[in-house]
Amino acid sequence: MSASLSAADRLLHEAVLSLDGALMRLDDMLGRVAMLPAERVQALLSSRFAPDMFTFAQQVRSAVDFALRMAMPLCGLEVPVPPSASNDLTELHDRIAAARAALDLPESAFAGAAERQVTERAGFADLELDASDFVLRFGLPNFWFHLTTAYALMRAAGVAVGKADIDGLHDYPPGFSF
Predict the structure, then answer these.
(1) Which of 59, 100, 126, 140 could form an SS bridge with 150, CB 3.0 to 4.6 Å?
(2) Which pTM does this prediction carry?
């Protein structure tokens, strides 16, 4: 750890580092989606829980985009323009890879992060939050909302995913059920 970062800056850096692990696990889950028959993959990509919700593909893109929307302003950087959206797994894998590369920020990029004010749009609301509120009340909740919704759509479609695919910590024996 760099002595030049405050404890608050280090905490924000750690929050961003946690997104990389989550994106890595999301990419792994998408690999299991690819094992489904092509027609089931296409059905999942356009599935949604309610008519006014994003599709699975949009949920994945939103989770990835929120990782960047959260991390880059903390470092005073512009959010990179994401790759074009299409409705296939390759595009989703590419988007995750691009985001993970962009999130590979040196610890020094977070110097002064805790002192930043972040301006963001939330639906139709204009926000201006200090860095901690931005991460805790906006960035992380939105990232996890979209990632968990994508996870739930995968589960509903019969993809072999579980809690360990979200947090990377849980372990259950094969066939375990509550």
Answers:
(1) 59
(2) 0.94
